[in-house]
Amino acid sequence: MSTPESSSSTTNSSEWHRLKSDNPFAPQQRVEAAPGNSSSVPIDCALDSPIDAEIVDDHSLDKHCVDAVVVDQASFTGQRQLHANLPERRTEFVVPKRFGLLAFLGITTAISILFGGLRLIEAPPSAFIFLGLQAVLVCLAQMFWGHEPRVASTSAGMFLFPIYCVVMLLEGSFFFLEGVWLFVAIPIVSIGSVPAGAGLGYIAGTCAAGVFLLIDMGETKLSELAASRSSTTQVP
């Protein structure tokens, strides 16, 4: 003879099985009630049990991935070939912002040679002033605008040479003009001397950079010679 308690347990168990069959995500494990509990109603532990899943390998995108890798490798190889075909950029030697005693001696030697050549050809004093100022101005321009040494040198020449020509025009060393013709000649000489000033500035910048290049080569040779002598003296 069944008791009300057993009938209630059977009803709850059948209800649990029905809910489990309706829910596809129901867990496969069932935990019974605690021993102290008279009821044998199973406990749903959906949060404790993993969900059964079927793993299917899909290789439909593998071809696209391989194509993408091949394209990336081809583009990378093409970029490397492009950079390899580019002409190598040469290092531009400019007047440094800081230099030592050897560089100072080299500068004074170069200016002495320049003034000695002007003295040899009996150049006027204005030529000494112009070429001395040109050398100093080009060196300063390359020191402060070393990232564009050619532009700095040509700009210095374009600035200084027209001023020199106008001063010489007013002094009368080159032209013998008076009155209105003098004022007409000033703008013509100023504008016409700009290209010549750019060329002179470029030449002066090249000579200044060449002087510092020779100084740098001399310092390198002296340091190597000193290092070799120190290494030979340390050997027993």
TrEMBL record:
Lineage of origin: Bacteria, Pseudomonadati, Planctomycetota, Planctomycetia, Pirellulales
Q: Know the name of this protein?
A: Uncharacterized protein
Identify the keywords attached in UniProt to this record, alphabetized. Membrane, Transmembrane, Transmembrane helix
Please name the source species: Pirellula staleyi (strain ATCC 27377 / DSM 6068 / ICPB 4128) (Pirella staleyi)
What parts of the sequence cross the membrane? 99-121, 127-145, 157-176, 182-215
Q: Where is this region: Disordered?
A: 1-41
In what ranges is there compositional bias, type Low complexity? 1-14
